[in-house]
Design brief:
Blueprint: E1 3-4, E2 14-19, H1 43-57, E3 64-65, E4 75-77, E5 92-95, E6 101-106, E7 110-116, E8 122-127, H2 129-134, H3 136-146, E9 154-158, E10 168-170, H4 175-180, E11 188-190, E12 196-199, H5 201-211, E13 216-219, H6 234-240, E14 248-254
Parallel strand pairs: 3-6, 4-5, 9-13
Antiparallel strand pairs: 1-2, 2-14, 5-8, 6-14, 7-8, 7-9, 10-12, 11-12
């Protein structure tokens, strides 16, 4: 099992990791560290994989919390845990409680982890294109502020996601971005295929973070689509006609 860290690790009160698919108990199309109960993988294997992640973070497995992700801008502020069966429908989590790991599951969407350098307040957001354009990043920051975070004190890290050379989309895909702000055209370029564009999701996520006042932003610069060894990818599974796919987990916790 392997995971990536960023400059967030310099914040002494927290531990974080962008976990890859390497290691784990799952097999077949889920081969590796699949952490999504929403997949069709064996639930026992998923529980084993999540337990390994929790152990790495130094917490009990029941303290690793994830959501029923729905590509929204909804944020949950955590005071106590839940089971995967009772997890709320939302796409971001924040907390100021020690020992609760905030987890987001991705397979091309951008995981964004956030933390303050002053008060002990953390956040995690699942930022696919729909959530990002819908404001999930800003909503997460606002929820952290309600816990007492100062916006100028928040740092963020963007984990592995579909990269700026891989995200081919239709021309219509661009519409909500341009309607939001004409300057968002900078995140699109012509694709080799006629009538298509390439969308730069991580740069768009950085842009939204900067507009929200976040100055310190780390980026793992890992593209999930071409790197099958390390990452699950929804788009790769679709290209192959596979009926299901695994999800890697990204998590952050106050120690």
């Amino acid at each position: 099992m392997r995971f990536l860290t960023t400059g967030l690790e310099d914040i002494k009160y927290l531990r974080h990791g962008f976990f890859t698919r390497l290691g784990g108990a799952s097999g077949g199309v889920f081969g590796g560290l699949n952490c999504a109960f929403s997949s069709g993988d064996n639930p026992e294997h998923i529980a084993m994989n999540r337990a390994k992640v929790a152990e790495t973070l130094g917490i009990p497995s029941e303290s690793l919390l994830t959501l029923k992700q729905v590509h929204s801008a909804r944020v949950v502020t955590i005071a106590e845990g839940w089971t995967h069966e009772t997890a709320p429908q939302a796409d971001a989590l924040v907390t100021d409680r020690r020992g609760i790991a905030l987890g987001v599951l991705t397979a091309d969407c951008a995981p964004v982890l956030l933390a303050t350098r002053g008060k002990k307040i953390i956040g995690a957001a699942h930022a696919g294109w729909k959530g990002a354009v819908g404001g999930v990043i800003e909503a997460t920051i606002e929820a952290m502020e309600k816990l007492g975070a100062a916006r100028e004190d928040i740092s963020a890290a963007i984990g592995p996601c579909i990269g700026p050379l891989s995200y081919e989309v239709s021309l219509d895909f661009q519409k909500p971005f341009i309607e939001q702000d004409a300057q968002n055209a900078q995140f699109f370029r012509p694709a080799p295929k006629d009538g298509h564009l390439i969308f730069d999701l991580p740069s768009y996520a950085k842009h939204r973070l900067r507009l929200a006042g976040i100055q310190t932003i780390y980026d793992t610069q890992q593209d999930t689509l071409p790197n099958e060894t390390a990452f699950y990818s929804y788009r790769r599974s679709c290209q192959r006609g596979e009926k299901d796919y695994g999800r890697q987990i990204s998590a952050i916790v106050i120690r």
